[in-house]
Amino acid sequence: MASSIFNAPCNIQAIKGLDRNSKFNCVKIAVKVRPPRTVVVRASERHDRPTEKRGLSDAECEAAVVAGNVPEAPPVPPKPAAPAGTPVVPSLPLNRRPRRNRKSPVLRAAFQETHLSPANFVYPLFIHEGEEDTPIGAMPGCYRLGWRHGLVEEVAKARDVGVNSIVLFPKVPDALKSPTGDEAYNDNGLVPRAIRLLKDKYPDLVIYTDVALDPYSSDGHDGIVREDGVILNDETVYQLCKQAVSQARAGADVVSPSDMMDGRVGAIRDALDAEGFQDVSIMSYTAKYASSFYGPFREALDSNPRFGDKKTYQMNPANYREALVETHEDESEGADILLVKPGLPYLDIIRLLRDNSSLPIAAYQTIFVLNSPLVKDFEIVCSTIFVILEVSGEYSMIKAGGALKMIDEERVMMESLMCLRRAGADIILTYFAVQAARSLCGEKR
């Protein structure tokens, strides 16, 4: 350690007894200054050890800088060179360059407008009476879960990665199906039993249920079918009210009428309130379109219509403004959440609802596959070859494309979910819930 003498400016007026005209216009101060330890860090070099402290006080550090002994820092990095042949042009006179806010991962993360979290996911789970989990051919990675074992295990996996909301869909034995779907409100039916089992094991689990007659109907329709093929509206709503109350009695947190009957939200709200279930929410399938994207879902439930289609009660895919009619009706009848199905091909409808309602918006990421003679090496469990040919396909498209190495499955999965959120969905019903949540947990690590 050496002693250095340097000139420090004085506040002469502050020193008593010192004449302003004195020849002493400065004070010589002797301080001990350690010679600065120069550490030059180059971007191309890696330094695992932190820079050692020199043991100086703040005053000594400042005094050294004032004396001109400025410690060295890395030099200004050279400007990266453009490739040979790049034209030399004057800079464009731009006051605003949006790319400045995208130039690094840190800035992109800081300015990201839409975020995904496991809390945004509702995990659809298919259940059946059997003890073993049965693979669903058209839905890679999805199973009909045994309600006493496989269901509980799958819920545990979801909770481990932060997904604590599920929705149950039953595969009902054919012998219990009827034209009026009476099994739908059996308090000891498959869904109520599963709810009670899950609530006993996981009291804080949020359980959504499906309110519709198609899994219980021998006709495969969401409502009661008259002999001339007409779907009876008011009589169906009467059955749906009993179904919703049965599910609420078992412990359901949110009942979700997916039937698209007129007036069912208000009727279900009244029925729930009359039975003391004022705290049970209603997630209405507000804009459920008569889409071709439902094939594998109906296979999972064995609920394909035995005749005709569902176009007299589900919405026309060509219609946009009609979604506002359904939105206003559901809001006025007491819906707590509004859902759009399918999701990704109907982003415009999600945004329409988001811009016209203050209620939470849900989107159902559906599944869709087509037989394709072009694909020979993508085998799903049932040994049938499937692939999506439309760019708007969702779950099965991503699974098929990932298996064929045509796309990066995880990145496309996360992008598709982000698109649903960006369009305005607060929650997403998705078969990717656990896989996406694991990906998000990995990002945090």
From TrEMBL:
Pathway linked to the protein: Porphyrin-containing compound metabolism; protoporphyrin-IX biosynthesis; coproporphyrinogen-III from 5-aminolevulinate: step 1/4
Source species, domain of life: Eukaryota
Protein localization: Plastid, Chloroplast
UniProt feature, compositional bias: Pro residues: 72-81
Cofactor requirement: Mg(2+)
EC number of the protein: 4.2.1.24
CDD domains: ALAD_PBGS_aspartate_rich (cd04823)
Gene3D superfamilies: Aldolase class I
Membrane spanning stretches: none
Oligomer status and interactors: Homooctamer.
Protein name: Delta-aminolevulinic acid dehydratase
Organism: Morella rubra
Lineage: Eukaryota, Viridiplantae, Streptophyta, Embryophyta, Tracheophyta
